[in-house]
Prior knowledge:
243 residues, seven-stranded antiparallel beta sheet, globular
Amino acid sequence: FERIIDENDLLPVWFLARGAEVQRSVGRVVLTKPHGGLAQGRGWASGFMVAPTLYLTNNHVIPNQAFNDKIRIQFNYQLGSDGIEEDTESFFPAGDVFRTNPALDYTLIRLKPYEKAGEDESALPGDRWGYIPLNASPIYRDQQHFNIVQHPSGRPKEIALQDNEIDELFDKFVRYKGDTEPGSSGSPVFNNLWQLVALHHAGGARDASGNWVNNQGVRVDAIIKDLREFFADRQEVLDELGI
């Protein structure tokens, strides 16, 4: 009496529980000074924790170390099931860890501890909001579904689920169908196991009429390779990243 229509979209219920856990690690980049026509306090982009103190986003989001003075990272900017905004926490760049790569369009920074943590609480942002381990061996296969947790246009956190198949694969980039908006730059791209596969950074290709047909992310294994080379003399950073 029952039928699979087109492809099988059934998922185990733990998909929801795991997704609810990993989304906590995504934090909005908020301007602390006016920039690019946007006022102080406006959402600038997305990013996510990849270790207890380390935060990953795009190079075009945080292009240089001086830009650290213009931003804070806000976690839990989202609506609850009752439609009411939840309480947030903000963290500021520390400045002692900074790596950016324009060719791969990524930036890694360290965040300062949370100043208002209680005596029995960890002050580290990754301990408070979780972090997404860097996945050194991502799997990419035809028709694989991706999921993107993001702050589109600076809005409270949203997610693009399932209607988001892999479209094209390159050595350092991957293209996929699915919806993003300005402000989604720096979002984590997951497979259906909630493993990190890419760092979203831009639109991908256009058709003959000029319409966008996919989006593009930086492959996480390409980022890991660059991080290993750059921090070869700072083993403590690589140890914290688990790479």
